[in-house]
Automatic annotation (TrEMBL), chain A:
Gene Ontology CC, one term: ATP-binding cassette (ABC) transporter complex
Keyword Oxidoreductase listed: no
SUPFAM superfamilies: MOP-like, P-loop containing nucleoside triphosphate hydrolases
Keywords (A to Z) from UniProt: ATP-binding, Nucleotide-binding, Transport
Molecular function (Gene Ontology), one example: ATP hydrolysis activity
Highest taxon, organism lineage: Bacteria
Transport is among the record's keywords: yes
Residue ranges constituting the ABC transporter domain according to the UniProt record: 13-243
Protein's UniProt name: Polyamine-transporting ATPase
GO BP, sorted A to Z: quaternary ammonium group transport
InterPro entries registered for this protein in UniProt: AAA+_ATPase, ABC_SmlMolc_Importer, ABC_transporter-like_ATP-bd, ABC_transporter-like_CS, Mo/tungstate-bd_C_term_dom, P-loop_NTPase, Transp-assoc_OB_typ2
Automatic annotation (TrEMBL), chain B:
Protein name (record): ABC transmembrane type-1 domain-containing protein
SUPFAM superfamilies attached to this UniProt entry: MetI-like
Keyword annotations: Cell membrane, Membrane, Transmembrane, Transmembrane helix, Transport
Gene3D superfamilies reported in the protein's UniProt record: MetI-like
PANTHER family in the cross-refs: INNER MEMBRANE ABC TRANSPORTER PERMEASE PROTEIN YDCU-RELATED (PTHR42929:SF1), INNER MEMBRANE ABC TRANSPORTER PERMEASE PROTEIN YDCU-RELATED-RELATED (PTHR42929)
GO biological process: transmembrane transport
Intracellular or extracellular location(s): Cell membrane
Family per record: Belongs to the binding-protein-dependent transport system permease family. CysTW subfamily.
CDD domains given in the database record: TM_PBP2
């Protein structure tokens, strides 16, 4: 496909200490971040954490107040949005309502002075790429939400960007369409091979689509990793609680042997991994995923961490059971596959292996 | 109609309809109808009876002699009676002569002198100039307020535009008079810089050019252009401008393809209002030029009414202007492809 061939030239995006301050408010702290060429990179964070601000620094609508932004190794200082090798897909798409679909797609070419016939031909090729080959003459308002979404993608791709910037482009769609569009976006990115920088506050979206994800909170990128690493080895309390669910138990650290430490908690002494090598005596938080914790019955060998808890609520979520328990004033959640039997309310023994839990320094938690 | 009755009941609905009808008749139909009617006739005096009247006067004179010569009483009374009937006849004929007759004709329209017609064309051209000038001033201002300025500054700018409108229109025009006068603010400044000399009367006679009327008019009617444009521009999603920019479009292309198409209804309304107001403006040219830079058509109409007392011609001129304005509206709507609905918005 010619369109794909022409577009296969992703560039890397390199933030070097880039920061943004609005008056006295630090929207984005000095950030070092390298997004590789051809990567599907997501920036994940709660509302107001500065995701859009980072995207606008990359696209050129904002000049960083500190540091610099490089695209394909070139410093972008003083280069306006219309001169950067990026294209931005807006949160509300911002299609031009008074132009037909193909004119929307061809606008970037029109701006570059491409002749009308050529424009129409290339717009048509792009519309076919996003499976809208027969919708070119309609107005955007006559399309469905998902179709409009694809028009926005085609319009951005028309200028053959090296980096496509997407600002929560799926947030306006309903759940089903969103899931469908995720797969479609991923497929398009694979096909054309350019760099995607995808912003979302939906962790499901980030986890399923991305090669790597940056988790952001209050203007600070806390961790950059692939989805599985992010999920299994969160490095901060915020990442641990923002990505997936976590049981959080506060405590004081004891001694560490072979990376496994003892932590004294209201539930008694427990053992967990200590990735930051926190020193004995320091306050810490223990994190265990709900699906890594299980109710113990007499048959199996008990794990190294075991304690008693009272089961007071059982939610059946189809394939899973969500069990809400309480132990020594701490509320805990356990996720079990639904095997057909529902545990009775009352006292149970609960446990997890030390390598299923992590001890992290205290910090801001995500409250969802 | 039925929903109106359902909502408000019969008596209230009837009242609403009555008020609407009164409004339509009293404010739209009646004044125009009166004006059109007046423009369609001339007053003619009946001069055909003049000879008869003269003849009657001669016989009256003769009868008066007869009366003086009359010997008998019987003769006297007879002549006196004849005199009375003659006088009565003269009176009715004279009344007929002096009473004007209404004659319906189109001559009020067709007989416009070439001088007046030139003034008419010039006025239309001037009004178009004022409209174009206002558009050039107002579009950037409206755009800046709606999309460039931070909200507090935008509000201040808007306030700055509105405040002068708290002052009477005439005063605003006089303010411009004082600015542009022979020894006005501008010339004083120039004199202060040594560029003109009041003693030698080398001041720049701004007031003798149409340009000063344009400037004063643009100022006087600026809000009627700014607000419609601002209102439409405000509804333009700023992301669309940024999207255009992000796709590589230079500023002029963004305006040509995104901003102006969106603002079209507002631009059309602003142009219509400014054109109508300036084409019909009397006070601005009257005050500013003091008759030194040629009449505008509106001044001509005024003089037909209040100096020549030729109301029929005045009415015809007014109606010509009105018809031209309506023609302009239709043209603009065609040109900008906007419907009545867009304008009502
Ligand atoms: N132009 C601006 N002037 C002042 N403050 C701003 C400006 N733009 C953004 N901010 C502030 O910077 C912070 C980050 O904003 P940003 O739009 O980047 O958040 P976000 O992560 O994209 O949030 P959301 O998910 O809600 O879109 C917010 O607190 C916001 O109020
Ligand atoms: Mg945002």
């Amino acid at each position: 496909m010619t369109v794909a061939a022409a577009l296969a030239h992703g560039k890397d995006v390199d933030l070097q200490g880039a920061a943004m301050r609005f008056g006295g408010f630090q929207a984005v702290a000095p950030t070092d971040l390298l997004i590789h060429a051809g990567e599907f990179f997501s920036i994940l964070g709660p509302s107001g954490c500065g995701k859009t601000t980072i995207l606008r620094m990359i696209s050129g609508f904002l000049q960083p107040t500190d540091g610099r932004v490089l695209i394909g190794g070139q410093d972008m200082k003083g280069v306006g949005p219309n001169k950067r090798p990026t294209a931005l897909i807006f949160q509300n798409l911002a299609l031009f309502p008074l132009m037909s679909v193909w004119e929307n797609v061809a606008f970037g070419l029109e701006a570059r002075g491409v002749a009308r016939g050529e424009r129409k031909r290339r717009a048509q090729a792009l519309l076919e790429l996003v499976a809208l080959g027969d919708q070119g003459d309609k107005r955007p308002s006559e399309l469905s939400g998902g179709q409009r979404q694809r028009v926005a993608i085609a319009r951005a791709l028309a200028v053959e960007p090296a980096v496509l910037l997407l600002d929560e482009p799926l947030s306006a769609l309903d759940l089903k369409l969103r899931q469908h569009m995720r797969a479609e976006l991923r497929a398009i990115q694979r096909k054309i091979g350019i760099t995607f920088v995808y912003i979302t506050h939906d962790q499901g979206e980030a986890l399923t689509m991305s090669d790597r994800i940056a988790v952001m909170n209050q203007g600070v990128i806390e961790q950059v990793d692939a989805a599985d690493v992010l999920y299994n080895q969160p490095r901060t309390a915020f990442v641990a609680t923002f990505v997936g669910e976590h049981n959080t138990v506060p405590g004081t650290l004891g001694a560490t042997h072979d990376g496994v430490c003892r932590i004294d908690t209201p539930l008694g002494p427990l053992h967990a991994l200590n990735p930051h090598a926190l020193t004995p005596g320091s306050p810490a938080l223990l994190f265990v995923r709900p699906e890594r914790m299980r109710l113990l019955n007499g048959a199996t060998k008990p794990p190294a961490n075991a304690f008693e808890a009272t089961l007071h609520r059982r939610d059946l979520e189809g394939a899973f059971l969500h069990l809400h328990l309480e132990a020594a004033g701490q509320s805990l959640v356990v996720h079990q596959t639904n095997t057909g039997t529902v545990p009775a309310p009352g006292t149970h023994r609960l446990g997890f292996e030390p390598d299923e839990a992590r001890v992290l320094p205290p910090g801001a938690l995500a409250h969802e | 109609m039925n929903s109106l009755i359902a909502t408000y009941g019969r008596p209230l609905s009837a009242l609403f309809l009555l008020l609407t009808a009164l409004w339509a008749v009293g404010l739209i139909a009646l004044p125009q109808a009166v004006m059109i009617e007046r423009s369609l006739w001339v007053e003619e005096r009946d001069t055909s009876v003049e000879l008869r009247i003269n003849a009657l006067y001669s016989s009256l004179e003769l009868k008066r002699f007869d009366l003086a010569d009359a010997k008998s009483e019987a003769r006297k009374t007879q002549v006196a009676e004849q005199i009375a009937t003659l006088e009565a006849e003269i009176k009715t004929l004279e009344a007929r002569e002096s009473a004007p007759r209404k004659v319906y004709t189109l001559s009020n329209y067709t007989r416009m002198s070439s001088l007046h017609f030139t003034i008419f064309l010039k006025t239309i051209a001037y009004a178009l100039c004022v409209t174009a000038l206002s558009l050039m001033v107002c579009y950037p201002v409206a755009y800046a307020v709606a999309h460039l300025a931070p909200p507090t500054r935008a509000a201040l700018m808007m306030l700055g535009l509105i405040v002068p409108y708290a002052i009477n229109e005439l005063l605003r025009v006089y303010a411009w008079l004082m600015i542009l006068d022979y020894q006005g603010v501008v010339n004083t400044l120039l004199a202060w810089m040594g560029l003109v000399d009041f003693e030698a009367r080398t001041w720049i006679p701004f007031l003798e050019s149409s340009g000063s009327v344009f400037v004063a008019m643009v100022y006087t009617y600026i809000l009627f252009m700014v607000f419609p444009i601002y209102n439409t521009l405000e509804t333009l999603d700023h992301n669309q401008i940024e999207a255009g920019r992000d796709l590589g479009a230079p500023t002029w292309r963004i305006h040509q393809r995104i901003v102006i198409p969106h603002a079209k209804p507002g631009i059309a309304v602003g142009c219509l209002m400014t054109f109508m107001l300036s084409a019909g403006s009397y006070s601005v040219p009257q005050v500013i030029t003091r008759g030194k830079a040629g009449d505008w058509f509106s001044q001509l109409i005024y003089r037909q009414f209040f100096e020549s007392f030729n109301w029929n011609v005045g009415a015809a001129y007014s109606f010509t202007l009105l018809a031209t304005c309506i023609g302009f509206i239709v043209l603009m709507m065609r040109l900008f492809k906007v419907g009545i609905r867009d304008i009502a918005k």
